[in-house]
Amino acid sequence: AADGRVLIDEMVAGSDAFTDFKSGFVKSSHPTTYAQYHLDALQKSVVSANMTAAKNLLNSRLGTTHPTRTTAGFVPESKKADYSDMAEAFQIAREGFEKLNGSYEAGAAKLRAAEALWSKAITEFDAEDKKARINEKVIAELYRNVIEAEIASRDFAAAEAHLSQARRLDLSKKDKEAIEELASYLSDYQVRF
Asked: Is the pTM for the entire model greater than 0.90?
């Protein structure tokens, strides 16, 4: 830090690794010039990679950057079932996510309203009835919607509860991976807030 405090006192992972350089056979009266050119380029790239790793470590530990995250919401569609409440929840959540950077409290309030609609729909889940409004085809996406909103609104207890519920379901491999990615996001976000 500028005042002389030590922020992190540890080795940056990978910075102590050796890098091999193997040149081809060069027939020249000055082979050292050829080798030196490549060694200089290699040294520049290694220093650059190590400095990037150090910067990423500092940013990760001290939270000095604001990483962007793309969030995709899901709205089920069907001619046989009415999902207007899900469309409304999506629009409210969209407004909430857009407001988070300007006014956190206003954005979080919108997200909580969307969470309530999604949570209510989750209670309608019927694994046995394939014709149910909230069935196996819809439930994973609803969990992803509500967990993402709960993390962004910093309702970590609710996000953990929904993660636990989602993990108990018989989901596809793709959906399980998405849920686990949200679990990782939750643990990272909790540390920062």
From this structure: no
